[in-house]
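User:
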Amino acid sequence: MRRDEIADLAAFVVVAEERSFTRAAIRLGMAQSALSQIVRRTEERLGLRLLSRTTRSVAPTDAGERLIATLGPMLHDLDAAIASLGELRDRPSGTIRLTTVEHAAKTIIVPAMKRLLADNPDIRVEMTIDYGLADVVADRFDAGVRLGGEVAKNMIAMRIGPDTPMAVVGSPDYFRRHAVPNSPAQLIDHRAINLRLPTSGTLNKWRLARGGRETRVRVDGPLVFNTIDLILDAALDGHGLAYLPLDQVRHHLDGGRLMRVLGKFTPDLPGYHLYYPHRQHASSAFTLFVETLRFRA
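Assistant: Predicted structure:
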């Protein structure tokens, strides 16, 4: 295969990842028209339609998905090998792409990056907030952050934070209209503000304790979001009960804007873990990133 054909395939992968010719062109630093010609040329050479195009979106076809599944890990390994050459420079450098949930980003990663980036100005960290269980290899991330127990077994996993205390909360206005629940069974009479999980498409079930055993409870309600910031706002507005990290609601509890219920039925969640595939050529920037996040009790 010629070098220009390899470059064309790499450009196709970027378009498929971004689901947009416009965003892909910006990422690649080239004209959108030129990128469109590259993809069209690749499809003609292979004799297959790789992308389905509408006026609003771009998505890979079945053939495109199969090609991405093969090319994605190869390109990721190539990027890692090139990034590892940064060790030959005086200072660690390169971009680290991370998929994480917003709570971990706010409470652990962003504070840690203040130290890392101040000492290493040539390192860049790009975070994507996503509650789905991302495939870091296929999606070309360097690493991901999820709660312990949610990490694929074929990944290297490292704890980066303590266990996470959770809280079921509601506003005083909500409790003026609804009785305070004294057990998880009474949640059937309440309205919840829920979190949608993109990977499964289901609602996040609340982890509560019943009879000394942890169980996952689904509570129906009028509002569903994909971000905990909006869930918190809706709880403050009195729309229903919310299941949120305690540190995100503590100041509202202290200020009387929220009330906590079912405290003895709400166990801590396993701490956040950084997960990533085994790689032979980890860059010095990635090694520093890992060590910066390592949890030290």
